[in-house]
Design a protein that fits this description.
Helix content is 78%, strand content 0%. It is mainly α.
Length: 55
Amino acid sequence: MRAIRITSADWLMVGLLGLTCGSTYKVMELTIEGITPFWLAAIRIDGAAALMCAI
């Protein structure tokens, strides 16, 4: 059986996943403070579009 090698790129992907999942809580906090659903959707769509363009 071959040993699995964990590279720095793997850790980067884990970090990005944690950042993505953790940012949901920040978005909820901002929403409670008064962002309308329209602006919340616009921010999420813009963020996703920027991420896809970066990839």
